[in-house]
Amino acid sequence: MEIILAVLAAADPGISAETVTAAVMAVTSRSGQRRQLAWALEDRPELLTGAGGEAAAPSVLRFIDVLCSKGATGIVRPPAHTVEG
């Protein structure tokens, strides 16, 4: 969770740790999924600012959607982005 919070603090300093934590918990059900999300964001923080469509981990797109729905202003959905399922 520390990695995700650090990446989000850089991408959208106005978003609270509670909001980020709630979004992570909403899109991941296991610790392995949280690690995969953290590593994807750590390796490519630009996934949060428009390049999310290039993410290998499906949780990245769901995470972006949840953050945007919670009012994140520094996070950008990729063009023509829809989440299924």
Tell me what you see in this structure.
The chain has helices at 2-11, 17-27, 31-43, 58-69. The protein is mainly alpha-helical and 85 residues long. It has one domain (2-69). Helix 2 (17-27) packs across helix 4. The radius of gyration is 11 Å and the shape is globular. The termini are far apart.
Basic shape: globular
Residue-averaged pLDDT: 91
Domain count: the total is 1
Q: Name the helix and strand elements from N-terminus to C-terminus, one letter apiece.
A: HHHH
SSE class: mainly alpha
How many helices? The count is: 4
Secondary structure: number of strands: 0
Percent of residues in beta strands: under 5%
Q: Please summarize the sheet with the most strands.
A: none
Report the end-to-end length measured between terminal Cα atoms.
24 Å
Helix content: 40-55%
Oligomer: single chain
Low-confidence stretches: none
Cα-atom Rg, whole angstroms?
Answer: 11 Å
Please write out the topology:
Layout: H1 2-11, H2 17-27, H3 31-43, H4 58-69
Helix pairs in contact: 2-4
Sum up the structure in keywords.
85 residues; mainly alpha; 4 helices; globular
Task: Describe what is shown at a glance.
With 85 residues, the protein is an all-alpha fold. The protein contains four helices and no strands.
